[in-house]
Amino acid sequence: MNSLNFLKSNKQNFYYFLYLGLFLFSISILDVAINAFLKINITSFLPGILSIFLPLILGFVGLNFIRTEYSGIKSLDIINKNINTNNFNAILTLLIIFAIIKATPPSLSWMIFDANISGDTKEACTGTGACWTYVKVWFRRFMYGMYPNDLHWRINLAFILVIALGFFGFFLRDNLKKYLALYYVIIYPIIAFLVIYYLISGGAFGLVWVETGAWGGLSLTFIVSFFCLIFCFPLGMVLALGRRSSLPMIRYISIGYIEFWRGVPLITVLFMSSVMFPMFLPEDFFMDKLVRVIIAITLFEGAYCAEVIRGGLQALPRGQYDAAKSLGMGYWKMHIFVILPQALKLVIPGICNTFLALVKDTPLIFVVGLAELAGMLALAKTNPKWLGFAMEGYIFAAIIFWIICYAMSKYSYNLEAKYKTER
Amino acid sequence: MNNKIKKILPQIITVLFVLGIFGFFTFNAQNNMDNRGIDFGFGFLTQESSFDVQFSLIEYSGSHSYARAYLVGLLNTLLVSFISIIFCTILGVIFGVARLSSNYLIRNSAAWYVEFFRNIPLLLQIFFWYYAALRALPVPEKAGPWFGVTYMTIKGYYIPSFIWTNLDIFLYSILAVIISIIIISTYAKKLQENEGKQIPVFFISLGLIFLLPALTFFIGGVSLDFEIPALKQLSKTSYVFDGGIGLPPELIALVLALSLYTSTFVAECVRAGIQGIGKGQKEAAASVGLTPNQILKLVVMPQALRIIIPPTTNQYLNLTKNSSLAAAIAYPDLVLVFAGTALMQTGKAIEIVSITMLTYLSISLAIAAIMNWYNKKIEIKEK
Amino acid sequence: MSEPIIKIENVNKWFGDFQVLKDINLDVSAKQKIVVCGPSGSGKSTLIRCINRLEEHQKGTIVVDGTELSENTKNIEQIRAEVGMVFQQFNLFPHLSILDNCTLAPIWVKKMPKKEAQELAMKQLEQVQIADQANKFPGQLSGGQQQRSAIARALCMQPKIMLFDEPTSALDPEMIKEVLDAMVNLAKGGMTMIVVTHEMGFAKEVADEVIFMDEGMIVEKAETKEFFANPKSDRTKLFLSQIL
């Protein structure tokens, strides 16, 4: 260990080592940056391998020089503690910084600097970068599917109404608050269904009828996720109560249902809905494909919802059950007025996660012929006027989904933290 | 008497309700099948399938039965799941541990990795890898070799195939390694109990794993030849690689997407497991004089694994179920081969979809049962 | 007066900007029992954690049984084997039985054969009167039983010094007595003990010296009788009036 001592700073030459170390560290980063952004290799006078590893060596030595456990200078201590605690960490830090620097120019130039967004046809994409014109032209299709362009306002209106009704529950007068559970479980789904049925598919009140085959894009993703969520919630509640029931037959049937639907992949469920359902229904009873798909996904997600709600019911302290029973409440009164309102508050983060999983699962309906966002991408990609832009489409869809899912997961994470502290 | 009725009546009503629904379905199905002239039966399984599958682990062609096609699909599903599970575990452990690093950059890079791959739908990731990334690979005639013997091309990843002589001797040596490791571990444990002495079992095992099989090459007459893929020209513009093993791009895209997506969930499980061990445990172990390695082996890992393994197994199950997305990019897994092609050809919707669902259900239930047994065995006992 | 078994000279420690130990000087002789008391945040836990190097001091010297503790110390594990520690949160290993908790270190650090380790463990468990729970798991015991098991676990390494970091602060009142009794027994057997605690009754019964710490400094250090009868500093007087 003594032989390496001269590389370690001590009280006298502390500042000397500090400045030298910072200098070495800076030139190593500068070398990589110049290489990446300006494509000039300033160390090209050195043999190949040395020129590649030089920044790493310089940076490593530099970080070694500035490493002290406690120097008293605030910013130096922060740097040392966070990225420079030992040799291994120093190398990893350098590698990550180099990787980020090297990856930035190509991505930026592809996405922004060499990209096109103006114009309307394939010819407008002249640069070597991304062709955002493709996305701009297909944007409406990606959002609304094959729904007629001039009727898009109906979809927008329907969404606004449904979301508004959803928040309506928070503004109820206090003496009506105890009917909140009833509202969300029974009334809201029915109203939402009617709104969507009449506004979006039309056929009454002077609105043109649009068949469900024409629905598509991101709006279809939301419609499907939304319906599945509001229907699978009451289903999940019934199953969760059934699974905890003391009556053996009900318990076994609930367990059987839950384990069955959790054991099979969603794609087989969708196949089942498009191929098997027609067999199980009377000859002349035609069920719309979208409706069949929604029913199938509801039955599927209902099992997962049931497990989430069961978790909430279990987390409730036994004292609540005991208190309600000792007041003379029967099974149903106890659950509706005491248990469920409390348990539902606990499971909201879990329900958010289920909804998140639902949104991530809906692209699958593309395999049974419903063209939501992923389906529209596949359609656009093979359009003869726009071949070869698959990458732009997927990146666009990825960004949209990522924003939605990330926002939702952060929201449910915050909710969870909030409820943890409230208890 | 009243109480008894209260208990029995709901059950009877529920059972009748469920039976009623099943009866309704069966009745309709019967009617529909009669009207369309389809009959119900599993005899079709022995019929000739007359369709080909581009990628199969076992001998298969159009002249084999549907039952064999089912087997091919099942093996492909298990193959892609198995490979993906290995990769996602490795990645998950790396990123799970990285998320707890004291290094700010490492910690945040890992966090962004997890958030990035977790929030994009799996189907989209599969599409991206298959249609966008892998399509950018070179065609066979322009592909340069990696390590001199493997080629990554748009038609697949070609690696040399192994040609063994005296493979059985090699396998026997592996068997010998396993047996000797077991013997040495048992002996070491007895030695420690009786005399307190410790022998480095780990290093001895490692040495055996490398030495014994290597020995068979020198004195056992085992030899290994490689068949290196070579470029063959089929026509003026089409080249393929002949010889060697070709991994289809569908398989590669699926493995990439599944591993990256599931590794984010595994990373979270690993992180929760390691964080779940309080600082006090490590301090208490250090205060009685255990070395850091001993602390990891005797105190931290036993407790962490108990927290990590159940949810991770759940993720493996999810991965296996998600592998059914292969249908979207035409990788011949169980769903595509059986519930896709075979169903279209025979029209036996109910039978085929039921068999497919039952297969997945059995896999899930089997793993869940093993998990429950394992949990009961290692449960940390409490009051 | 023989060489002290623990020598602490001019020890200073910082957590970032905050100085948690200021110029601590302390000598502990063999078989001596010292009680450290003071308000929370005064640095008492940090001080004893520096003695078995669970925390590292930045300035000054600490010598334990002839070996100086510094970043160049080889085999810190050997030192820790000589110094036993009992924690406020017990920190028993939940996946091992009480007997296995106690035999873990003797088997793996002192390389004792299993039978010998088990005999040793049973002897220590009997000393703290918990031998009948030897095959139970920590989760199945009460707080007082767990802490006594933790004491036995530390004793199984046959240490020269025992450190106690607020051993009874996490216990329900009715269990504090059984743990204090075990500690009194240990003291009567001649063990060198440094105890951070608020239990002044224990201090009066067993301690040779009492130290009062506040804001990282040793404010007062005196022989027990003298400490309680004639506290010299005002801060000591204030503290004693609040807890007695």
What does this entry look like structurally?
The complex is a heterotrimer of chains A (423), B (383) and C (244). Chain A is built from 15 helices and no strands. Chain A has 423 residues and is mainly alpha-helical. Chain A folds into 2 domains: 2-113, no CATH class; 132-147 and 210-422, MetI-like fold, CATH 1.10.3720.10. The longest helix of chain A is centred in the last third of the chain and has 33 residues, at 390-422. Chain A is extended. Chain B has 383 residues and is mainly alpha-helical. Chain B has a domain at 66-120 and 250-378: MetI-like fold (Orthogonal Bundle), CATH 1.10.3720.10. Chain B is 66% helix and 7% strand. A 3-stranded antiparallel β-sheet of chain B has the order 1-2-7. In chain B, strands 3-4 form a two-stranded antiparallel ribbon. Chain B has a two-stranded antiparallel ribbon with strand order 5-6. In chain B, helix 10 runs antiparallel to helix 11 (349-378). The longest helix of chain B is centred in the N-terminal third of the chain and has 35 residues, at 2-36. Chain C is built from 9 helices and 10 strands. Chain C has helices at 44-51, 76-82, 98-108, 114-127, 143-155, 173-188, 200-206, 224-229, 234-243, and strands at 6-15, 18-28, 33-37, 59-64, 67-68, 83-86, 161-165, 192-196, 209-214, 217-223. In chain C, a hairpin with a 2-residue loop joins strand 1 and strand 2 (18-28). In chain C, helix 3 runs parallel beside helix 5 (143-155) and helix 4 (114-127) crosses helix 5. Chain C starts with 5 loop residues before the first strand and ends with a helix. The model of chain C has no long low-confidence stretch (mean pLDDT 89). Chains in contact: A-B, A-C, B-C.
